[in-house]
Amino acid sequence: QVTLVESGGGSVQAGGSLTLSCAASGRTNCMAWFRQAPGKEREGVAIISMGSTYTGYSYFAKGRFTISKDNAKNTLYLQMNSLKPEDTAMYYCAADYRVCTVVARNYYGMDYWGKGTLVTISS
C-alpha cells in the first residue's frame, strides 16, 4: 500500500509557473501526473519510471511541463511553465508497482492515487 500526498497547487496568472510535489510513502516503479478540469474527464499529463529513464508527456504538456522525481525523498515533481487558463484543473499523482511500459497500456488503471491539488490559472 502506498499513500500519495500532493502539494504545491495554487492560483497564478497566465504565463506563470508552478511546481507540484507528490510525497509517496514508499517506492514504486512508475509514477504519473493526471489532471481533471471541471466538467471534463481525467487526463494524463506526464509519466516517469523509477530510474527516470522513461518519461512521457501528453501533447499539451510537451515543452512546458517537466516531470521528475527524487528517489531518496520518494517525491515526484511536476514543473509547469508558461501556464494557460486551460491548465486550470485538479492535479493528481498516481503510482504503480508495475513498470511504466506495462502501465502505459492503461494509464488510468494505476493502483494508487492521491487526493489532488488544485491549480487555477487566471487570464
Can you lay out the helices and strands and say which pair or pack?
Blueprint: E1 4-7, E2 10-13, E3 18-24, E4 30-36, E5 43-49, E6 55-57, E7 65-70, E8 75-80, E9 89-96, H1 100-103, E10 112-113, E11 117-122
Parallel strand pairs: 2-11
Antiparallel strand pairs: 1-3, 3-8, 4-5, 4-9, 5-6, 7-8, 9-10, 9-11
Shape: globular
**Proportion of residues in extended strands:** over 45%
- Quick check: average pLDDT? 96
SSE order: EEEEEEEEEHEE
Q: By helix and strand content, what is the structural category? A: mainly beta
Kindly state the percentage of residues in helix: under 10%
The number of helical elements comes to: 1
The major β-sheet equals: 7 strands, mixed
Number of distinct beta strands: 11
Distance between the termini: 40 Å
Task: Give the low-pLDDT segments.
Answer: none
* Radius of gyration, taken over Cα atoms and rounded to an integer in Å: 13 Å
Salient structural properties:
seven-stranded mixed β-sheet; 123 residues; mainly beta
Structure commentary:
- The chain is mainly beta.
- 3% of the residues lie in helices and 49% in strands.
- The chain contains 1 helix and 11 strands, in the order E-E-E-E-E-E-E-E-E-H-E-E.
- The chain has one helix at 100-103, and strands at residues 4-7, 10-13, 18-24, 30-36, 43-49, 55-57, 65-70, 75-80, 89-96, 112-113, 117-122.
- The strands form 2 sheets. Strands 2, 4, 5, 6, 9, 10 and 11 form a 7-stranded mixed beta sheet that branches. Strands 1-3-8-7 form a 4-stranded antiparallel beta sheet, with no helix packed on it.
- The radius of gyration is 13 Å and the shape is globular.
- The N and C termini lie far apart (40 Å).
- The model has no long low-confidence stretch (mean pLDDT 96).
